[in-house]
Amino acid sequence: MLGFASLGSGSRGNATLVADADTCVLVDCGFSLAETRRRLARLGREPSDLAGILVTHEHADHVRGVARLADHYGIPVWLTRGTAAAIRWPRGVTLCEVGAGRPFTLGSLRVEPVAVPHDAREPVQYAISSGARRVGVLTDLGAVTPAVVAHFRHCDGLFLEANHDPRLLATGPYPPALRRRVGGAFGHLSNGQAVGLLKRIELGRIRWLVLGHLSEKNNCRTRLEAAVAPLLAGRVPWAVACQERGVPWQWIDY
Asked: How far is it, in rounded angstroms, from Cα 220 to Cα 135?
């Protein structure tokens, strides 16, 4: 089987586990070492279970805990050259360079880095396969590109960003420059953009959909549900990953 779980998702920290029967990887780690250990334990895992850490980009809510976790437990880190250059690394950490459009194997998992439009040095997101099953982790992008649709169209499980409601963003506490950044083409997906992507993929194949990276100030579950329920109701099981508890394991049988 292939599955995924969230340690927590939001502006204060993000981390996602993807695993099959043989290999477990962590996508990003925006939590302290102690907090990461606590959240892993809640999901029945330990740092020693991790075959690698896949980093999407250098923003603190995704990498705050990566260097220390990797250094303390000797876990290799996979990331683009641009992301690696934007972070200070302890001398002993093993860095493995990835590139968009260059799939690689990590244990029993096949990992595909996918370029996304986001205001970072060289950001990617990941589609991860085991056998015939495929999971996508897709957050932190401001627009849905043809490459994104192509790589995430045929997923059995999907962790997808639904960051903000445009009306809440427009009337919320963020200054104008930050509103433009979040809502721009290199910012974050809105609820409506997330729904738009779901309409362009093979929705009937998805066994589990998790919506995450919700803004605490510019979104709420009520507005998200109003946006997605007409499309998903009765068709796809779905959940929302929260900041404090993430979401438990969602398993996809072969």
From this structure: 25
Q: For residue 170, which amino acid is it?
A: A
pLDDT in tens, 161-190: 999 999 999 999 999 999 999 999 999 999
3-state secondary structure of 22: coil
Give the number of C-alpha atoms closer than 13 A to the C-alpha of residue 86, restricted to the C-beta side: 20
Mean pLDDT of 132-143: 98
CB atoms within 10 A of CB 82: 15
Return d(Cα 188, Cα 192) in angstroms, integer: 11
The pair of three-digit structure tokens given for residue 159, joined into one six-digit string: 């962790």
pLDDT at 254: 60
Domains of the chain plus CATH, in order, are 2-245 (3.60.15.10)
Query: What is 75-125 written as a DSSP string?
Result: --EEE-HHHHHTS---TT--EEE--TT--EEETTEEEEEEE---SSSS-EE
The secondary structure of residue 217, as a DSSP letter, is: T
* Number of separate helices (H) and strands (E) present in the chain: 9, 14
Average pLDDT of 102-115?
Answer: 98
What is the share, in percent, of the chain residues with pLDDT greater than 70?
A: 100
Distance CA(62)–CA(66), nearest Å, equals 8
